[in-house]
Amino acid sequence: MRVVMIGTGYVGLVSGACFADFGHHVTCVDKDASKIKRLEDGIMPIYEPGLDVLIETNVKAGRLDFSTESGDAIAEADIVFIAVGTPARRGDGHADLTYVYAAAEEIAGYIKDYTVIVTKSTVPVGTGDEVETIIRKTNPDAEFDVASNPEFLREGAAIDDFKRPDRVVVGGHSDRAFASMHELYRPLFLDETPLLKTERRTAELIKYAANAFLATKISFINEISDLCDAVGANVQQVAKGIGLDNRIGSKFLHAGPGYGGSCFPKDTLALSKTAQDYGSPVSIVDTVIEVNDKRKKAMVSRIVKACGGSVEGKTLAILGLTFKPNTDDMRDAPSLVIIPGLQALGAKIRAYDPQGMEEASTMLNDVEFCDDAYHAMMGADIAVILTEWNQFRALNLTRVAETLTTNSLIDLRNIYPLDEVGELDYHSIGRPS
Question: Domain 238-427: what homologous superfamily?
């Protein structure tokens, strides 16, 4: 099949490369000429393990190409995906659909034969209806269907998630569109991947509901970790005890400084705003948003307490800046709240992140970025682990204690077993010291 992917952000680029690897011909389109040039030169605009090799392989095989011009590709396409950004709109928190609607209008002008237009971007309920209206108004004679195909990719594991998904969700109103989407995803059905066919609005809501539920699990275990601190219990054992219940499951039950990234913050907010618009508020989701915002701010107080009640004049080594490991994504990362909060209280910051420092340098001020974890700790009073990168899981704790002017390590990800920290003054979350 011939596929066009409008947008070469995280979702569009990973999805396009994977569809090409399935054997389809994919053209990834983006208005950013410099990004397209970098992609043609083999330079990745994002960090995602294995993506560079996947793209190189499929470009060489002639199945994947990049362009700033969509016209010819759309005219020949069987399926066109809209995979542009839908950031939270400033002022009210609604998803900004400007790019989605602009893409729909552009697509409409080039459709020739029957085409399936698919929203891959995360969009509020009813967006597909508006996309259909725009295309029909712009090109009344076009033969097309609009479908919803939400993505469920985890940054850092996106390629494996795409090729070995728990399910594929397709929302639409046409047997012909469902048949095209089934053919597109045919390689997955050899592994008996479930294909859930729904109404279009249902598919749109599934994405938001899934992210809101996962965000709820994170905020839930974070609050339980505070209770563990208060009563002297161990949150990791509590999480294991409830996670072994098949009705609950163990994933997303890891206490930490709060969730961030490209999905959970904006999607929970967008779901809340949509629910308000329809007069059906989602109080649990509203609380999750509030809990997560407070969680990040509370980490500043936790660090200050571990530093003896003040960080004035102290140098802190921050290990990890991105919202999670194996990505360079800084969007809504806890570090963007915690570091300025510490600086406001008089702390000096030295920081290291394996992939996120370039992006972080545009978002954080007065931070000294370092070559590695030990360089960051050199001359620092205390070290704080904010992101659980693998290289931070195997620190030489004796060297850590010797490098810091004190021997204090604040671990906001509970990386180390309590019986392995030795004489280190070690502080974690929801575990008795």
Answer: NAD(P)-binding Rossmann-like Domain (3.40.50.720)
